[in-house]
Specification:
Blueprint lengths: L15 H6 L10 H11 L4 H6 L1 H15 L4 H17 L24 H4 L3 H22 L1
């Protein structure tokens, strides 16, 4: 941490022990009137006293524990439902990445040309032609 960013310039050369004994107004952003209000409300006059204020300690403890707290059963259920809803909307098998910002590409069926849309369109066409020829040859022999 760069101490110059959290204390007023006149205190930047002080040691941490000296800063702990410095007035609360030595903290950047704490005005003289803010320091007076802290003194009147809580009897706080120095940075060290502010750090030791039980309300500050409690608030820090609550925030630290909140970051580590396990989700409740209700929160887990909501997360599971959300995950399932997203999976239903964007199945993992979709070739389009959800991260790409594209959800689906819809093409009306009448717009799809199977002979050019298929990866092996040439093979499909050749097999179709061969099948038609065999059927024609077979029906010709039956007559």
């Amino acid at each position: 941490m760069n101490i110059e960013t959290i204390v007023d310039p006149s205190f930047k050369s002080k040691s941490f022990r000296e800063l702990a004994e410095a007035p609360v107004s030595a903290l950047r952003g704490v005005s003289a009137s803010d320091a007076r209000a802290l003194s009147q409300a809580f009897g706080i006059n120095t940075i060290g006293e502010l750090a030791e204020l039980r309300f500050v300690k409690w608030a820090n403890a609550i925030k630290t524990l909140a970051n580590e707290e396990a989700d409740t059963k209700e929160q887990l259920a909501k997360e599971t439902l959300l995950d399932e809803a997203v999976e239903m909307t964007f199945p993992a098998s979709d070739p389009i990445s959800v991260d790409a910002g594209i959800t689906r590409i819809e093409v009306p069926p009448e717009m799809v040309n199977a002979s050019t849309d298929h990866q092996a369109a040439t093979n499909v066409a050749a097999n179709t032609d061969a099948g038609v020829a065999r059927r024609a040859a077979k029906s010709g022999k039956d007559h």
